[in-house]
């Protein structure tokens, strides 16, 4: 099993878009976490390579203000006028 900098396992890497789907947030937020060093990632050219395990660990832990997916709730509808 090969690693990059002894942190990122090559068999466990995904792009920021794939990591965002796993984490339930936006890919922009994943890129911000990569830049800040808050998630296991490595930049390869213009693309960030992210640990899929680290992205999965983010699921459910992100506040909605930081890009977490919104929970869908039914909206009360007003009755129609006659």
Task: Summarize the entry for a quick read.
This protein is an alpha+beta fold and 82 residues long. Helix content is 30%, strand content 18%.
Structural commentary:
With 82 residues, the protein is an alpha+beta fold. The protein has a single domain, classed as Arc Repressor Mutant, subunit A. It is built from 3 helices and 5 strands. The strands form 2 sheets. A 3-stranded antiparallel beta sheet has the order 3-5-4. The chain has a two-stranded antiparallel ribbon with strand order 1-2. A hairpin with a 2-residue loop joins strand 4 (41-44) and strand 5. Helix 1 (16-23) packs across helix 2 and helix 1 (16-23) packs parallel to helix 3 (52-58). It is elongated, with a radius of gyration of 17 Å. The model is unreliable at 65-69 (pLDDT under 50).
- The CATH class turns out to be Mainly Alpha
Number of helices: 3
* Helix-strand sequence: EEEHHEEH
Approximately how much beta-strand content do the residues carry?
15-25%
Cα-atom radius of gyration: 17 Å
| Unreliable stretches | 65-69
Query: Within the largest sheet, what's the order of strands?
Result: 3-5-4
Average pLDDT across residues? Answer: 78
Q: How is the CATH topology named?
A: Arc Repressor Mutant, subunit A
Q: Please estimate the helix content.
A: 25-40%
How many structural domains are formed by the residues?
1
Question: Structural class, from secondary structure content?
Answer: alpha+beta
Oligomer: single chain
The span between the termini is 69 Å
What CATH architecture would you give? Orthogonal Bundle
- How many E strands? 5
Major sheet size, sense and barrel closure = 3 strands, antiparallel
Shape by Cα distribution = elongated
């Amino acid at each position: 099993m090969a690693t990059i900098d002894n942190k990122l396992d090559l068999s466990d890497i995904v792009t920021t878009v794939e990591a965002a789907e796993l984490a339930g947030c936006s890919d922009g937020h994943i890129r911000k976490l990569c830049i800040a060093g808050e998630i296991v990632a490595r930049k390869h050219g213009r693309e960030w390579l992210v640990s899929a395990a680290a992205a999965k660990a983010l699921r459910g832990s992100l506040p909605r203000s930081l890009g977490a997916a919104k929970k869908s709730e039914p909206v009360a509808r007003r009755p129609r006028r006659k």
